[in-house]
């Protein structure tokens, strides 16, 4: 438990590192924009969006790989990848090629056709030469834009014991959210009998009309089967070249192929009694979801434990001085309450409540920040007020400016979600910032 470490009921996680993990190649699909994050992804791909005070979203998937003992990793990039590439080069270059460990960038290069990546399956197909060179026994296909902690070794072991050609990690979700996911039907042995990508009328789980079984976008393939499936799909003119729309339904409909459903609860890291022993997995694909997941971390006992030494989240971070809180006058006191404050920050005679501040943020005297996510190098001016907002990197909030208090005025200047969260970017403020986001 983060707020009270002595009361933590989480038991140490035993890593499932084995020959299976060492002989697995992980392909992380990190080329998508994430358009539902609106202007937050105007200059960066979704996996490069900052999260949790010091991380990028992709750090969670990469950390799961490294902590699971999977040290051969490819990252397929495409949309506005400079920020992502910059982060990977600085923070993820520690693997040792002498031991056949690597994280390799795989940008869309039109290697096979004159097209860029046309879908998730096509992104892997265009890198088949890399798979053939590395000769893995299994290929782990992952999305680079979800927040979760998972021991992939446990899924690999289950995949092998079931002699499956394909395994799909799944989690049960509310039926009203199911239209945004691939929905599965399974039998009592957890063999997948049906798979529908983003169905208009999702099928509920047997005996649970309010829940559906959703794919997490985490797949284990036997390499030989994956190569054959990708080559078949590439020559299908009717295919969208997507795992959820094409490859997985095709495999499920083939009686010769064993498609196994892996229950995420069996490999989730960090489930505690305080969280009801429920697995933590977040798709932070909207501004509301992104804000909520960050705000969750400010709780006394958040469901996602970032202080877990048994399963650390790795990242790159600057060498910065500690956060500094200055002035102690009655009306001018530098304080932060129920908040996460990163290195290099200065809270100068200002008040921060229930907020998450990334590095090098300045909050000037008499300013107030409440229930907000402030990205790196933002500057909150003197006497400014910010509430229920996401402030993008490099934003300069003018002295006395008010954000989150007058929805009508906010909608004229910024993006406001249906739940009233205000997104502010430098461009909205008329600030032309040339930087790597």
Automatic annotation (TrEMBL):
Residues 321-424 form the Glucose-1-phosphate adenylyltransferase/Bifunctional protein GlmU-like C-terminal hexapeptide domain. It catalyses: alpha-D-glucose 1-phosphate + ATP + H(+) = ADP-alpha-D-glucose + diphosphate. Homotetramer. Gene3D superfamilies: Hexapeptide repeat proteins (2.160.10.10), Spore Coat Polysaccharide Biosynthesis Protein SpsA, Chain A (3.90.550.10). PROSITE patterns: ADP_GLC_PYROPHOSPH_1, ADP_GLC_PYROPHOSPH_2, ADP_GLC_PYROPHOSPH_3. This is Glucose-1-phosphate adenylyltransferase. GO terms for biological process: glycogen biosynthetic process. Alpha-D-glucose 1-phosphate binds at residues 117, 182, 197-198, 215. It comes from the Bacteria. The gene is glgC. HAMAP family: GlgC. Involved in the biosynthesis of ADP-glucose, a building block required for the elongation reactions to produce glycogen. Catalyzes the reaction between ATP and alpha-D-glucose 1-phosphate (G1P) to produce pyrophosphate and ADP-Glc. GO terms for molecular function: ATP binding; glucose-1-phosphate adenylyltransferase activity. It holds the Pfam family NTP_transferase. Pathway: Glycan biosynthesis; glycogen biosynthesis. Residues 26-299 form the Nucleotidyl transferase domain. The record marks 78, 116 as: Could play a key role in the communication between the regulatory and the substrate sites. The keyword Disulfide bond does not apply. Belongs to the bacterial/plant glucose-1-phosphate adenylyltransferase family. Its EC number is 2.7.7.27. Keywords: ATP-binding, Carbohydrate metabolism, Glycogen biosynthesis, Glycogen metabolism, Nucleotide-binding, Nucleotidyltransferase, Transferase.
